[in-house]
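NUDIX domain-containing protein, Streptomyces glycanivorans. Tokens?
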Amino acid sequence: MTRTETTTTASHEPTDGLPGTAALLVDDAGRYLLHLRDANKPIWAPGQWAFPGGNTEPGETCDQAMARELYEETRLSVPGLAPFVMLETLDAADTLTNRVLVYLGTLNRPAHEIPLHEGIELRWTHAAETVHMAMEPGTAAAIQEHLRHPHPRPDTDGRPPTVRIPAVREPRERSIVGAHLYLERDGAVLLGRRHPDSVFAPSTWHLPAGHREADESALACVVRETAEETGIVIAESDLSLVHTLDLRHPGSPVSRVQLFFAASRWHGEPRVLEPDRCTEWRWWPLQALPEPLVAYAATALTAIARGESYARTGWPS
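Tokens:
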């Protein structure tokens, strides 16, 4: 979301750190003239739709730069161009990285009659169409500003308002959380043999485990999954975290955090309650674990035996 505020520099005059310029041209039908920039080139906003415009050169005012850029790109000379808004682009640390002074003007000429000397295409576009286009973020923000305020709004010193464009942040990676029960009795650990038709690890031994559901803590997940799979009843207060495995499967875009909880006490004996998932439960001596055993579970059991609270597997070194 953008936020609008007043600039503190008369940005259409030459300054250190000159802003670029862009022309927001509107026709009588309320359409905007957009310029599709070259793709696959080391240029600003490659392959995106933007306003015609460019950099302000040393010694130029922004007014002069706007007129020159517009003529170089389109051979247009548009009278009455007025500073409309200053776009300020921020990086992920909210540091200013780019400034563009957008000028507002009116033009009524078919796009095919406008000679284009840079880029790929010019087209007149209604604002509603832009949601389906690869828009340069500042251009999209300027159009929204124009829809809200269709006329220039300079302050008492003649300065246009500022729209700040926050960085498009990459979505943070989210990991799937798995919760596992490490149930040890007389030097043996409880393992179940998964059904031969299981999608994951068929006919392979594994700990009681599952993925937590929405609004469910990992502890609650262990308690629920254990009761559903084995009939064993455990209180959350009797569980303690003994190991965390940071897991990435080769080729998988999603990482997993596998949590292993040990129970200090419990009620009941293991029973096969989900025969379509598990065919048997058995206590296996820690020194004689069965094969095949789910690989990451084997990694975790080895780490638990060594007293290691964390391990990772599948990640680059």
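The helical segments are 62-74, 137-148, 218-230, 295-305.
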